[in-house]
Amino acid sequence: MAVTIDINKPWESLRELIARRSVKELLVYFDSLSPQDTALVLSRLDEDERTDLLTILSPEDAADLIEDVSDEQAAQILGDLLPSDAGRIVDELSSDQIVDVLAELDSDEADEILQTMPSESAGIARNSLSYQKDTAGHLMIPEFLSYQEGASIAEVNRDLQEKQETFRTYNIQYIYVVDSDNLLVGVMRIHD
User: CB-side exposure of 168: number of CA atoms within 13 Å?
Assistant: First the structure.
């Protein structure tokens, strides 16, 4: 599907697509843009147009757009949405992005969004947000991989293959090896 974009005013093309509520064309349009261009065209839209755009798209696709903008811009965009709409989008962000974006909102706005999210992801975000910005607790990602020390390479590989969709969203560099009490025995680089 070809989408005609005026390269001198790409935000005008975007306004047209939003008005037509054409999800497929919107996705093609954004796929044609770099993250910097995405941030630029989103900044050219008014609050109502951004709200329309993000509610037309699925939460997953809206989250992909949010990941292309700065945390400050993402917080502004999400702050303009109803908390329930923002919560569905925020829940699709990576765990570290959730914390970074919510940290840019005032605490009342962030709490309203967290209240609309599933309790597990909201709890993880609340825990990270409880730490001071730029501390290890605030910056850490909660996802990690651990396997029992007796697991074979074949078992680990099979598990990684079976759960690859889930693990793809993790920013994992190490696999932790634990004993039967889940105490750390060793660390292995994921590439190894």
Answer: 6
